[in-house]
């Protein structure tokens, strides 16, 4: 990413972009930011009231009318994904962007005392849901003139650290998912696939993981959007298989 990257105000005009976990934190900021840059944003999440608040904010600002999809990724089924793909296909014809942002932190404890149920839930939300959504949305991405899939990684998805358990392992899996998919699509389609590690950002998740930190010492989600815009817009055409740091 060029150090002085300045996205055009109309960078995402005419594009349709789905954001998971769009009701709070980084996903909310990304949805608002993509809409501000001209995109029609599909807000996917599990808490209707939060999604509605983002929807209303986008409408009130006069940005393109978003769409709202309520799905709990801990329970997502193939049927829901097929249904979603069919609905989006009918309404938009194709999908220009997919931001896999939703994740859960899960238990912060040693593997020796971790519970299998909590481990499975983290893997379900952070890894399995990412796969099954991508699996069924891929035809819509391939139907776009150029499309971008962005997965959300973490520092503990590159170097393991004690007590980060399933979350860290899920982020290694996310890096792997990005690399495998990117490699498969590199020469045969217009879909690029990359990762962003947001870095320490002031959200509920960060503040849960680091209760002793002063939240405002970290940047707000809105302050780390340059890399997200770069990867979603056409300035990053040809860039694939790369893991970026947003900070
Ligand atoms: P938040 O916890 O603030 O937000 C997570 C979002 O994901 C929420 O909108 C939440 O919905 C949604 N979500 C969680 N579980 C589900 C589910 N089962 N189904 C649907 N949606 C779900 O986290 P952040 O904004 O901090 O994190 C965003 C991404 O960035 C994550 O992938 C995280 O791992 C990553 N990250 C964050 C860092 C940070 O410092 N903040 C650092 C490194 C990585 P709801 O609000 O309804 O619970």
UniProtKB/TrEMBL annotation:
Any GO MF annotation of the entry: oxidoreductase activity
Domain of life: Bacteria
TM spans (from-to): none
Alphabetic keyword roster: Oxidoreductase
Domain Ketoreductase as annotated: residue spans: 15-180
Family matches, as SUPFAM superfamilies: NAD(P)-binding Rossmann-fold domains (SSF51735)
InterPro entries according to UniProt: KR_dom, NAD(P)-bd_dom_sf, Sc_DH/Rdtase_CS, SDR_fam
Cross-referenced PANTHER family: ALCOHOL DEHYDROGENASE (PTHR42901)
Family: Belongs to the short-chain dehydrogenases/reductases (SDR) family.
NCBIfam families: PRK08945.1 (NF006509)
Protein name as catalogued: YciK family oxidoreductase
């Amino acid at each position: 990413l060029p150090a002085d990257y300045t996205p055009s105000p109309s960078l995402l005009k005419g594009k349709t972009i789905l954001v998971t976990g769009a009701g709070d934190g980084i996903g909310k900021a990304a949805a608002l930011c993509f809409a501000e840059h001209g995109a029609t944003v599909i807000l996917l999440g599990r808490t209707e009231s939060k999604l509605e608040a983002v929807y209303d904010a986008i409408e009130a600002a006069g940005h393109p009318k978003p769409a709202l999809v309520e799905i709990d990724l801990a329970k997502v089924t193939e049927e829901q994904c097929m249904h979603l793909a069919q609905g989006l296909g009918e309404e938009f014809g194709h999908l220009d962007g997919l931001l896999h942002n939703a994740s859960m932190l899960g238990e912060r404890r040693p593997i020796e005392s971790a519970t299998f149920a909590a481990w499975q839930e983290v893997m379900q939300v952070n890894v399995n849901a990412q796969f099954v959504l991508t699996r069924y949305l891929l035809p819509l991405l391939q139907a776009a003139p150029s499309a971008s899939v962005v997965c959300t990684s973490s520092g503990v998805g590159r170097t393991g650290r004690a007590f980060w358990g399933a979350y860290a392992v899920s982020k290694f899996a996310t890096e792997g998912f990005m690399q495998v998919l990117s490699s498969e699509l590199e020469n045969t389609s217009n879909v690029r696939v990359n990762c962003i590690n947001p870095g320490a950002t002031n959200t509920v998740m960060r503040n849960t993981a680091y209760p002793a930190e002063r939240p405002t010492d970290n940047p707000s989600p809105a302050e780390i959007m340059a890399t997200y815009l770069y990867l979603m817009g056409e300035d990053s055409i040809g860039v694939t298989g790369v893991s970026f740091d947003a900070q």
